[in-house]
Amino acid sequence: MFGAFTSAKDLASSCIIMALSQRLDLRQSQSLVMTPQLQQAIKLLQLSNLELTSYVEEELERNPLLRSDEDTEGGGEDRRRTDKTDDTTAPQPVNGEATAIDTLNLVAGEGIAKADEASLDTDYENLWNGGADFTPAPQPGPMRGVAASGTDASIIEQTVAAEISLFQHLSDQISADFDNPSEGLIAIQLAGLLDDSGYLAGDLDPVAEQIGCQRQVLDEIIERLKQLDPAGVFAADLSECLALQLRERDRLDPAMQTLLDNLDLVARRDKAKLKQACNVDDEDLAEMMAELRRLDPKPAQAFSHALAQPVTPDVLVRQDGSGGWAIELNAETLPKVLVDRTYYANVGKRIRCTKDKAYLNERLQEANWLVRALHQRATTILKVSSEIIRQQDGFMRHGVQHLKPLVLRDIASVIEMHESTVSRVTNNKYMATPRGIFELKYFFTAAISATGGGEELSAEAVRHRIKALIDAEPADKVLSDDTIVGALAREGIDIARRTVAKYREALRIPSSVERRRIKADAV
C-alpha cells in the first residue's frame, strides 16, 4: 500500500514536470497591422479640405524637407514629380458605363475653364481718360470709392462707414452711462457674455464669483444694462426681451404681460385660451398679436457678426458635351507639397554625425509618405465620386425625385474598396453639380418599397414628394398624414403613417392642425 502511494506521487510529479516543459511550435496566422503609413493615409482620407490644409501647414513647419509648390520657384525633378501626382485633378468622363471607373486614367487634361485674367494686369496709374480731371485708382480698405466731383471732393465722402459690432455699440454706451470705473468694468465683462441673439442667459452665480462682486450688485448692474440700446439686450429669455421692447414703447400693459407669459399658446395659435387668459375680445387679441409681430426677438442680429463661410466643394461635376459627365477634383482644395531633394542633398553632404543622418533620413521618409498619401487620397475621392455620379445619373438629369436608393456597399463593391474607406471619403466632402452643392453622404439614402413590385424609391425622393404635396394643398383642405399616405399609395409608394410623420418633422413642417390654424390666420 505504501508502495502504491509512492508510485502515484511519482506519477503526479512527472505529469507536472511534463506540463511545464518547453517546446518549439511553428504556427501560421494572419493579422492586420496598422503601419504608420496606413494610419497617416486613413487620417488624411477622412479630413475635410480645411482640416487637410491645416494638417499640411503643420507638416510644412515641422519637416524641413517639405516645400509648398506654390512658394517654390524653378522646375527640377521634384516639380515634375509633383506635377505627375497632381494629375488626379483631371476631369474623368462618366457616361453611364460600368467600366468608367475601371479605366480611370490619371493623365492631365483640361479642367474647368478659368476666367479671363487679362483685365487684372492693367495698371490704373497708367490710364488716361482724356478729360481734365484725374480719377485715382480705387484703393483697398475702407476707402472703396471716389467722389465723382473731382479732386475737390471731401475725403469724408469717399469713406464708407464700417459696420460696428454689438459689443462696441454697448461699450460706447457703458462708457457714457457708468461713472463708477469698477461698475463699468463689470458691465463691459457682462457685455462680452451675450449670445448671438443678445440674451444674457444661464446661471449668473458663477459669473459673480468670477468677477468678485456680490450677486445683488451684479443684478443692479444688469438692470441698468437692460435700458441700453437696442431694447431687449441683456434679457434672460424671449419673454423678457419682448417685454423690454414693449416697455420702451409704453405698451406693456397687464394684458400684454399676460400674453408674454403664455408664449406657448401664441406658438400654438390657441386663440380661445389666449382670450380667456388675457380677458380680451377678438379685436383686442388681433391688435396685441400684431404688436407682438412688430418686435425683434433677436436684437443682436441687427449688428455685424461673423459671416458664415461658404462651402468649398472638393469635387466639380459638369457636362462634357457628349451626354456624359466630367468629374474633376477642385484644385483649390488640394494642397500642393513636394520634397526638397536639393536641400536634402546639400545638407547630407555636410552631416558627419550618425544621429543627424538618421534624423534627416527619417524626415525624408515622412515627406515621401505625405506626398504619396495625398496622391492616394485624391485618387480615392475621385473614384468614389465618379461611381456616385454614375449610379445617380437620374438625379443629375431629372432632379431629386429620381434619386436612387444607395448604400456604401454598392459603391465599395464596384471600386473594390472596403465600406469603411467609402465612409471616410464621403465624410465632410462636398460636390458641386449643376443642381447645387451637395455633401457626398446626401446621395446615400435608404430604400422605400413600391407597391405592386415596382422599383424601390429613395427616402430623399419620398421626402421631396411629401413636401410637394403639402406645398400644393389648398387652405380649406389641409392634408393629414393619413391622407398623404393614401396619396403616396396611389402613386405606387408603400409607406406607413408614422414614417410620413417622421419625414414631415424632419422637414420642419407643422402638423395638419397647426397648418390649418396658420392658413386660417393668413386668410
Q: Which range best describes the helical content: under 10%, 10-25%, 25-40%, 40-55%, 55-70% or over 70%? A: 40-55%
Give the oligomer, counting copies of the same chain as homo and different chains as hetero.
Answer: single chain
Q: What form results from the Cα inertia axes?
A: extended
Largest sheet: 5 strands, mixed
What is the total tally of β strands? 9
Report the sheet-strand fraction.
5-15%
Amino-to-carboxy terminus distance: 111 Å
User: Would you tell me the structural class of the helices and strands?
Assistant: mainly alpha
Poorly predicted runs of 5 or more residues: 73-87, 96-153
Using only CA atoms, what is the Rg? 35 Å
Could you give the order of strands across the largest sheet? 2-4-3-6-7
**Averaged pLDDT:** 77
- Helix count, per DSSP? 22
Q: What does the secondary structure layout of this molecule look like, with pairings?
A:
Layout: H1 2-19, H2 36-45, H3 49-62, E1 66-68, H4 76-85, E2 92-94, H5 166-177, H6 181-191, H7 205-211, H8 215-225, H9 238-248, H10 254-261, H11 263-268, H12 271-278, H13 282-293, E3 315-319, E4 325-329, E5 337-339, H14 341-350, H15 354-391, H16 393-398, H17 408-415, H18 419-425, E6 430-433, E7 436-439, E8 447-448, E9 457-458, H19 459-471, H20 481-490, H21 497-506, H22 512-522
Parallel strand pairs: 3-6
Antiparallel strand pairs: 1-5, 2-4, 3-4, 6-7, 8-9
Helix pairs in contact: 2-15, 5-6, 6-8, 15-17, 17-18, 20-21
